[in-house]
Write a structure and sequence with these properties.
The chain is an alpha+beta fold and 569 residues long. It is built from 17 helices and 20 strands.
Length: 569
């Protein structure tokens, strides 16, 4: 399929959009009488959708399928949001494509898995709700009951062709925590956006959904930043005010307003105040500044999950330069490669999934008053470059500027510290521990011992199903564990500095199974809907599997659109 919208979702365009997000407009809400409403609107539609990522387009398409007239207002000059930068995968339990491949899903197993990883502190296998609150129990049941049907409907109409996402060797994906007993080792929940029979990207997802929606009547307007939510004297949301290059416009919504505007990754105040974990930026587009949180707070909205994010590691120099990075560190490639902290010690299975690796950056040492893992060192040798893999420059290739080199471990440690020193104006003084080199040598010796036995006694590298799924073995070195190879006793050595970040945050207004926003009394606010990263994600603390953000966002976005369209005007 051709991609006529490629320019509309280019990264360069999103970087330009950052300036629009910095506008000094006050964000909030306004209440007007129904008589005034007739006089205030510049235009009126059945449904107004704010945002233009996967969740927003699903909301628009759901409303269109319900017979509503719909307008989409996008803050940036380009459509697509963070979805356009993503891999375009969606986590969808019990879908028809996995069944066609012979992989069966099971609702009880699904519920035990999502309860176990989303709310681990609450999980109780003797509870009727598995320890979850009634609210989350209802949401996650609704997700099971509707997700497959939503994606099948989008596929059948041509709005979003889907199929099982397959690995490099043609196998369906395990879930991110597929080693847990509660997961049931079920395969195939991760779907891909299909282009000519092959897995496409997030840009392809936006391409399909936007063309379909426009062909079916959606009015898409860029550079329309929603700055106020308007409700009538009965409390119903009846429209929005949007700031545009030509001035303020007032657009009425006879049936509802759906927000799919993303999280607050690029709002430093919110990151600091809401996130329990440090995050320096991330993959989210620059316009994701938490506008909805500011506006909805004036409406007495119940907020949730603000302390969580879709965590992801970043290359330190990139996140300092771009804030909205081209692509975060999804995987750590190579076999003779390890990640260590400022004291030269490993912290995790380097092949495990990015959300959980990123959590390690947040460890606080009360005795030193420090975050010893805040910035990490990913170290590898020429053998790892021969093995290849994500983030590893292949043998013979030019080295990116963020790769630090040293002919010996001593030289590498010196050069790593020199790099930190060169960044001091932006990150402050950051010193490797005085024990870094000695511990690093001990760490490598221990790791090389694991290479001989094939068993990582510290972090079980290569044992989780997801480890093998995401890391192709391109060179068979005859190792007992193909993901662990001894690090060379002689250089050269290479290092990349890693920092904490997000794909985006995942907290905001709490919503019900229809996508309706709830007030502080747990009552739905008529005419007010939310989906995607702008909302309090029902996934809680977890990243359920590849496409976890889009699976939830698209499902509840579509349900919100359907529900809004069914309301009386």
């Amino acid at each position: 399929m051709s991609n006529p919208q490629a320019s509309r979702v280019s990264r360069r365009g999103f970087m330009k959009a950052a300036g629009l997000g910095a506008a000094g407009t006050a964000l909030g809400a306004v209440t007007i009488t129904s008589a005034q409403a007739q006089e205030e609107w510049d235009e009126q539609f059945d449904v107004v959708v704010a945002g233009s990522g996967g969740a927003a387009f699903a909301g628009a398409i759901g409303a269109l399928h319900g017979g509503a007239s719909v307008v989409m207002l996008e803050k940036a000059p380009f459509i697509g949001g963070t979805t356009a930068k993503s891999g375009g995968g969606s986590w969808v339990p019990n879908n028809k494509w996995m069944a066609a491949m012979g992989h069966q899903d099971d609702k009880d197993t699904y519920l035990r898995y999502v309860a176990r990883v989303s709310f681990p502190e609450l999980y109780n296998d003797h509870s009727p709700t598995l320890g979850m609150t009634e609210h989350h129990w209802a949401q996650l049941n609704a997700f099971w009951d509707n997700a497959a049907g939503v994606f099948e409907k989008l596929d059948e109409t041509g709005a979003l062709p889907s199929g099982v996402f397959l690995s490099w060797d043609g196998k369906p994906a395990p879930d991110y925590h597929g080693h847990l007993e509660e997961n049931g080792q079920i395969l195939g929940r991760q779907l891909a956006t299909m282009v000519d029979g092959k897995s496409g990207s997030g840009a392809d997802m936006i391409d399909y959904m936007s063309i379909y929606a426009e062909d079916n009547g959606l009015d898409i307007r860029t550079e329309h930043r929603v700055v106020k939510i308007v409700r009538n004297e009965d409390g119903r949301v009846i429209g929005v005010h949007a700031e545009t290059p030509d001035g303020l416009v007032r657009i009425g919504a006879a049936k509802g307003v759906i927000f799919g505007t993303g999280g607050f990754t690029h709002n430093p105040h919110m990151r600091t105040q809401f996130q329990r974990n440090p995050a320096m930026g991330g993959c989210a587009v620059p316009t994701n500044e938490g506008d909805l949180i500011n506006m909805s707070s004036e409406l007495g909205v119940k907020l949730g999950n603000l302390n969580e994010a879709w965590n992801q590691q970043e290359i330190l120099e990139e996140v300092l330069e771009f804030s909205s990075v081209p692509s975060g560190v999804f995987f750590l490639g190579g076999d003779s490669a390890i990640a260590v902290n400022k004291h030269g010690k490993r912290m995790y299975d380097e092949k495990y999934v990015y959300p959980e690796r990123t959590r390690s950056h947040h460890y606080y040492d009360q005795w030193t008053g420090d975050y010893p893992n805040l910035y990490q060192v990913f170290l590898f040798d020429d053998g790892a470059r021969e093995f290849g893999g994500y983030l590893i420059p292949p043998a013979g290739a030019d080295l990116p500027g963020y790769v630090i080199t040293g002919d010996t471990l001593e030289a590498l440690a010196e050069n790593i510290q020199a790099r930190f020193d060169s960044l001091a104006e932006r990150i402050g003084t950051y010193k490797l521990g005085p024990d870094f080199l000695a511990n690093l040598k001990d760490t490598i010796t221990r790791y090389n011992g694991f290479a001989e036995t094939g068993v990582d006694l510290d972090f079980h590298r290569g044992e989780s199903p997801i480890d093998a799924y995401f890391h192709a073995v391109s060179v068979d070195k005859g190792n007992k564990n193909p993901y662990i190879s001894a690090i060379s006793e002689t250089g050269p050595y290479y290092a990349i500095l890693l920092a904490p970040g997000t794909l985006d945050t995942k907290g905001g207004p709490v919503f019900d199974a229809n996508g309706q926003v709830l007030d502080v009394h747990d009552q739905p606010i008529p005419g007010f809907y939310v989906a995607g990263n702008a909302a309090a994600s029902p996934s809680g603390k977890s990243y359920l599997g590849g496409g976890g953000t889009l699976g939830l966002g698209i499902t509840f976005g579509y349900l919100a659109g359907q529900h809004a369209a069914s309301q009386d005007a």
